[in-house]
Amino acid sequence: MDTRRFRTLFISDVHLGSKAAKADFLLDFLRHHEADTIYLVGDIVDGWRLKRNWFWPQDCNDVVQKLLRKARKGTRIVYIPGNHDEFLRDFPGMHFGGIEVAQRAMHETADGKKYLVLHGDEFDVVVRNARLLAYLGDWAYDMAILINIGLAAVRRRLNMPYWSFSAWAKLQVKHAVNFIGEFQRVVAEEAKRNDADGVICGHIHHAVIEDLDGVRYINTGDWVESCTAIAEHEDGTFELITWQTILETQPVGASIEELPQSLGAQAA
């Protein structure tokens, strides 16, 4: 499989330390994608779950080692902490193995546009003002993910394509749909306040590239349900890559190394 090279890659919401994290898929993605700069846009490590129950299998180590290896070879890697890895917010400006930590960043694309890069949890009223409620929501999401895993296994055995129960359930709840829309609007307004042409964020696990009132809104998605990343090409255009869509539709028993390369679900 050929390696794809980009100017910039944006990845968020991996949740290493959670049993739902698809670290093996991300490792495969990192093996076949290179970039001059990689932004880790928050919730890469799931500190919340690790505090409750330590879970750190070898593939989590492999992802960390792969990122450190890329940094040693010259890739600039910027880690912008989210709410699940908020412990890193105490170290702005610090470097760990060549990975720099920042609260937020202003990214300039190849065509000269400015994009505010942040995780986005500061605009989530539940996380900011009702931490207990946020933890309860996190637990409910865990349950949905467990159902998701079981259904995915059954559908693979029946040679049916991947379908995310958790993503479907989220979009059936009117409050959740309204929240996504409001979150996008507020984050786009923050980009305007910072004189940016657009914003790149994560947090809500809903990958998209769209224009909102003159602002380009880009969400990186996640590596729990959808396995998505945002890539900037050498001309400054963006592509939304959906890696899991390719992986999950392979025959049962196919190894990750045998799976074809994602062609990208959306370009803009």
UniProtKB/TrEMBL annotation:
<dbReference type="GO" id="GO:0046872">
    <property type="term" value="F:metal ion binding"/>
</dbReference>
<keyword id="KW-1003">Cell membrane</keyword>
<keyword id="KW-0997">Cell inner membrane</keyword>
<keyword id="KW-0464">Manganese</keyword>
<dbReference type="InterPro" id="IPR004843">
    <property type="entry name" value="Calcineurin-like_PHP"/>
</dbReference>
<keyword id="KW-0479">Metal-binding</keyword>
<dbReference type="Pfam" id="PF00149">
    <property type="entry name" value="Metallophos"/>
</dbReference>
<dbReference type="GO" id="GO:0008758">
    <property type="term" value="F:UDP-2,3-diacylglucosamine hydrolase activity"/>
</dbReference>
<dbReference type="InterPro" id="IPR043461">
    <property type="entry name" value="LpxH-like"/>
</dbReference>
<dbReference type="GO" id="GO:0009245">
    <property type="term" value="P:lipid A biosynthetic process"/>
</dbReference>
<dbReference type="InterPro" id="IPR029052">
    <property type="entry name" value="Metallo-depent_PP-like"/>
</dbReference>
<dbReference type="GO" id="GO:0016020">
    <property type="term" value="C:membrane"/>
</dbReference>
<feature type="domain" description="Calcineurin-like phosphoesterase">
    <location>
        <begin position="6"/>
        <end position="206"/>
    </location>
</feature>
<keyword id="KW-0472">Membrane</keyword>
<protein>
    <submittedName>
        <fullName>UDP-2,3-diacylglucosamine pyrophosphatase LpxH</fullName>
    </submittedName>
</protein>
